[in-house]
Amino acid sequence: MTTASAPGKVYLFGEHAVVYGEPAVPSAISRRARVTAERRADSRLRVHAEDLSLDGFTVEYSGETDSTPDVDVSPGLVRAAMGYVDAAVSQAREATDAPEAGFDITIESEIPLGAGLGSSAAVVVAGIEAATRELGVELGTEEIADRAYRAEHEVQEGQASRADTFCSATGGAVRVEGEDCRAIEAPDLPFVIGFDGGAGDTGELVAGVRELRERYPFAASTVETIGDLVRQGERALAEGDLEELGTLMDFNHGLLSSLGVSSRSLDRMVWAARDAGAHGAKLTGAGGGGCIVALDPTDGTESALGFTPGCEEGFRAELDDEGVRVE
Ligand code: MEV
């Protein structure tokens, strides 16, 4: 039996635009998904998932990946997670030249599903590491990141960048532009996260931006403007200029809103953070619901989120320098 874990992440800048080749800067956070793989005698895949939401709510799902999960809450999300596990195991089988390998897989995650904190990437990355190690093969981080990207790409029907999976595999802050993925230096960043208890459908949200981009030249320009903003943000990050980073995060949120991927609850949480004195705040990930990230070294944002309508939980998150690891 082998357990591996990988971190979730927040986007400082650049989600959505990164799908069109613009740069993005995600940063791993100290919330992890853990995947345990145990080799079976047959070639079947059995998946058990629990704690797939922040508040400790337990999804009891135990069955074959092609059966319908018997859960009361968010069965669609649980089914989506099973798709990612399937794709991760396919990659592990291919990497180890063991097409018939079967596994019992258990997922435990501190990252809410579909909420913009990179839960699917963390599950895929940890899943590939757990399953390949269980078969006695040690892949390098770059290969895990590449295979995890291919798995996400397949599940999201060709609409994925390398940002989520690379960040989850390597940990730390990273810069992704097309195929070019690398670690970058980052100061201590006082992240505060607000979670509305909901989730967005990444595939639909990415498709929505694609449509806008094809329909309106100014939407295409908005995507390019996000790229310019990210390049400016990289300079602020290198200089450790939190105020400038915050201003650019506010700007990035506005541009994402104009691309139609924010929501009332995300906007409320962003404004609560700004009113509480955060340097800046924006939605993180695909949007539509889920999480915002603010930069605030004081307790202001965290306590304000406690009183913000629509916010289920506000919490601080540290940058996590460690990527995928065997537990
Ligand atoms: C989703 O976490 C981030 C998006 O940019 C999609 C992707 O990069 O694959 C919306």
Automatic annotation (TrEMBL):
GO terms for cellular component: cytoplasm. This is Mevalonate kinase. It comes from the Archaea. It comes from Halalkalicoccus tibetensis. The gene is mvk. It is an enzyme of class 2 (transferase). Belongs to the GHMP kinase family. Mevalonate kinase subfamily. NCBIfam families: mevalon_kin. Pathway: Isoprenoid biosynthesis; isopentenyl diphosphate biosynthesis via mevalonate pathway; isopentenyl diphosphate from (R)-mevalonate: step 1/3. Residues 84-172 form the GHMP kinase N-terminal domain.
